[in-house]
Amino acid sequence: ASSNDELLIHINPPSNIKDLLFADSSETWFRRI
After folding, report:
1. What is the pLDDT of residue 12?
2. Can you give 1-33 as a three-state secondary structure string?
3. Can you tell me the distance from the alpha carbon of 19 to that of 1, in angstroms, rounded to the nearest whole number?
4. What is the reported pTM?
5. Burial, 4: exposed, middle or buried (Cβ in 10 Å; 0-12, 13-18, 19+)?
6. Interatomic CA distance for residues 33 and 14, integer angstroms
7. pLDDT tens track, the chain, 33 positions
8. Which top-level group of life is the source organism from (predicted)?
9. In whole angstroms, what is the distance from residue 25 CA to residue 31 CA?
10. CA–CA separation, 16 and 4 (whole Å)
11. Cα 33 to Cα 28: distance, rounded to the nearest angstrom
């Protein structure tokens, strides 16, 4: 992921962040950050 994508994630985290925490893709999401 580009630095711009990471900034967008930090500024606008997914509204369903709580769901991502327990989702299988959560590991990838956190690793991207």
Report:
1. 58
2. CCHHHHHHHHHCCCCCHHHHHCCCCHHHHHHHC
3. 21
4. 0.18
5. exposed
6. 13
7. 566 666 555 555 666 666 666 556 556 655 555
8. Eukaryota
9. 10
10. 21
11. 9
